[in-house]
Specification:
Elements lengths: L3 E5 L6 H12 L2 E4 L1 H12 L4 H6 L14 H10 L3 H6 L1 H8 L5 E5 L2 H5 L5 E6 L2 H14 L6 H17 L12 E4 L5 H14 L5
Parallel strand pairs: 1-3, 1-4, 2-3, 4-5
Helix pairs in contact: 1-10, 2-4, 4-9, 8-9
Bound molecules: cytidine-5'-diphosphate.
Cytidine-5'-diphosphate binds next to helix 2, helix 4 and helix 9.
Amino acid sequence: MAFTVAIDGPAAAGKGTIARAVAAHFGFAYLDTGLLYRAVGAKVTEGADPLEAAQALRAEDLNAEGLRTQAVAEAASRVAVNPQVRAALVDFQRAFAARAGGAVLDGRDIGTVICPEAQAKLFVTASPEVRAERRYLELVEGGHEATREAVLDDVKARDARDSERATAPLRPADDAVVIDTSEMSIKEAVAAAIGAVEARGAKA
Ligand code: CDP
């Protein structure tokens, strides 16, 4: 049976960690939809046309190296305001969501636009300062150069662009469970998410 978990929220709120843990707990497949926009953004920085890059995207492109950098995140959020780019990526995401055996998708518009019929919807958030600190540590651990100030500026700029765009802006679905992870450990956040998904009828 298809069971879809939609997880949305701003940059570095902990969506990926929570989504992976939820998928592992219930035995569902996981798709980080940010990677689709990152892969398109990366191709655009190499000179590709955004729409052509989105239309030509293949599953293998999501494994490309270098998609986690701040520069690619910035490029991703720029291509993500383009309605044609977003439209070109819809089918891939819906097909993934409908797979038998269950799926978890994380992004910005999964519960509102991509899978409005998802059985469980979570909106994972945290204060900009907490998110910037987490992203800073993640980047430094990954061997990337970063400063706290630059990461906080980037997080705020992307939040503004993602929330204010006309097409599929970042916002919680009306029926989403909001989880603010500002003061939660990873364990607590994962437990809250699993509890919310169980409450919607998923079984491990
Ligand atoms: O990991 P982080 O939250 O920093 O970023 P991401 O989820 O990889 O997404 C990178 C950018 O892609 C975001 O800032 C959004 O502009 C865009 N995005 C989107 O518009 N819709 C999605 N479903 C996922 C990402």
